[in-house]
Amino acid sequence: MSPVFKAALWMAGWLTATLAMTVAGRELGRDVPVFVLMLLRSMMAVVLLLPFVMATGGITGRTERFGLHVIRNVVHYGAQYAWFSALILIPLAQVISIEFTLPVWVAILAFAFLGERLTFAKIAAIVLGFAGIIAIVRPGVGAIDAGHIFALSSALGFSVSITLTKFLTRTDSPLTVIFYMFAIQTVIGAVPAIMVWEWPEPHNWVWVAVLGIAGTFSHYCLSSAIQLADTTIVTPMDFLRVPASALLGYWLYGEGIDALTVLGAALILGANTLNLLKARKA
Asked: Which among 97, 99, 46 is positioned nearest to 216, based on CA atoms?
């Protein structure tokens, strides 16, 4: 079995896990406050990851940049809150499509804070990405839905988090970054969750389990895929999340898909493809 085929299988696991987490977030968001479901997810992830952490040296001494981990996860926590909020308010296809503008924001932040050059290809990708956002959000055609604001905020927040992660992975292992992410967000999220605490109804505990397991397993699948194949091969497989989430939204929630949403998603994925082609050429 070739490494690329193995990577494709891991990406199938990533796709399945992220879609499961998306549906679980939508289902829980109807009955459970977002702060509560985020805390439950982080706590489950800590429990799942702790044995691996203890087997690879324990918790102490894993990093010398704990302060940067805290800053990164404050931003990531806010982005994750916005993402879960968007899931409740707008169609799944729109949430995921806007999420794919993340490389556009990363390119802008890398130019502003990391000194990376803005090449013609990157500028073209940024223009395509923003054109896609305009097609989906449609400013000036009635009031902009709060869900679109949350989705855009989450994409921007995740891009800041990824930029900070580039610094952390120079010295810390992926397991350390992921474990500290969930551990710190458990602490951060405890206070707001307690303030609005509501125990999930018995039928919702299945979705809590899906959220925690899928949210943790997805990271492992993606890391395994990237170890086996180049990111320019792995990342296009993730593009399947856009049509898959659109189909899920249609089948499970009766969400329609209009032509402008399809156009916006195509422009955003085009921007990502341009970035990937440039990376492959480099």
From this structure: 46
